[in-house]
Amino acid sequence: MATRPRLSKAIEYGNVVNFWVEYPSGLIDLTRSQHLTADGVEPSLVSLTQLDIPVTGDRTIRVDKSKAAVVIIDMQNFFLHPELRVHKPGLACVDPLLKVIGPLRKQGVKILWVNWGLTDQELKTIPPAVVRGFMKGGFGGFGAEMPGNFGRLLMRDARNSELYGPLQEEYLKGEKEGTDVWIHKNRMSGIWGHQTALDLYLKENGITTLFFGGVNADQCVSGTFIDAYFQGYDCVMVEDITATTSPAGGLENVLHNAANSQGFVTNTSNIINASG
Length: 276
What we know:
This protein is of the alpha/beta class and 276 residues long. It has helices at residues 77-80, 88-91, 94-106, 120-123, 128-133, 166-177, 197-204, 217-230, 250-262, 268-275; strands spanning 11-14, 19-22, 27-29, 50-55, 59-64, 68-73, 110-116, 180-185, 209-215, 234-243, 264-266.
């Protein structure tokens, strides 16, 4: 799909309370801080509280730091650890993810680690299609004992449910600093139903803009991304911290739809440069 041309005049989207403003310069203001004025003049960046981040399509999004969060999905041992599977694209996301977290923390952006983490009670309520989907690869399905000391498959507090390698240490560091939050999910999407743990956290903390990364791009990441889009969140896919093991086209389709229909696509370099 060709990049949509820039506007000839500013436009406000949404309603009185929930709105964006797009300007001819390519700026899309997501902060909901200033309605479009009669003269259409673009407001100046308030660097203390806002970030301007370039995205694909020759645009720049302006976000409110206090209303933004990074949603990192399923970067867990079960999906990434070499003793359990081969996921080279996912492992390639670890380094850029570690590099972008620090600058975002300094800007006050929350870091949300959204992961599978089941309880025995939840095992009784998971739909058969979801159960069947995870009964492959010789692992036996949700709750089954895994080889070595990885524990029960995707159960809370099991080793296979921990974040992979240095990411677990990074989360613990952020948890201690009060910047990082661990949120359990029990479906592919982290925001699939009424009052999921993720949705409750976002609403209680007034968060409106979400930066997404993790694995797998065309499954749990896109499922959460699309559900968040349906619920009215501003959704931004961060390309170089998002991966999948699906055949060619899986990731590309997710990025295409994210950029052209559901929100925006950027990368960690753009975010780091914007964060100073």
